[in-house]
Amino acid sequence: MKEKLINLKNKIISGFISLKNKLISNFIDLKNKTIPFIKTYKAISIIALIALVVVMALLIIIFDKKEIGNTSGNLNNLGFSVDKGGWVYYLGYNQGVSDGIYRVKRK
């Protein structure tokens, strides 16, 4: 029984080693094919890269949430008020001690 477990362990380890070697060899093959292609078709590669960046920028602009925050206001008032969704939320203080969170409707 012990020998079977040792053999199984050795098979698993050798499987992992062979998988690692295949991955490294595939990566090296991909690198050896990609770099000459980019060097040969440098202009096309640059155009494709620019097109990819433009498409990504357009997707970000199109699908960006149109939420406006008040980060600069929070930095000025140490984060004691927040403006969101037509309401202003703020911490109320009484003699230096916070007595709750309040909100007022923004006009």
The chain-level structural class is alpha+beta
Order of helices and strands: HHHEEE
Strand content: 15-25%
Distance between the termini: 80 Å
Per DSSP E runs of 2 or more residues, the count of β-strands stands at: 3
Treating each run of at least 4 consecutive H or I residues as one helix, how many helices? 3
Specify the biggest β-sheet. 3 strands, antiparallel
Low-pLDDT residue spans = none
Helix content: 55-70%
Mean pLDDT: 81
Instruction: Give the overall shape.
Output: flat
Radius of gyration, in Å, reads 30 Å
Strand order, main sheet: write it out.
Answer: 1-2-3
Number of domains: 2
Q: What features would you highlight for this structure?
A:
alpha+beta; about 65% helix; 2 domains; about 110 residues; three-stranded antiparallel β-sheet
What does this structure look like?
The chain is of the alpha+beta class. The protein folds into two domains: 2-63; 71-105, no CATH class. The protein contains three helices and three strands. The chain has helices at residues 2-40, 42-63, 71-76, and strands at 81-84, 87-94, 97-105. Strand 2 and strand 3 (97-105) form a beta hairpin. It is flat, with a radius of gyration of 30 Å.
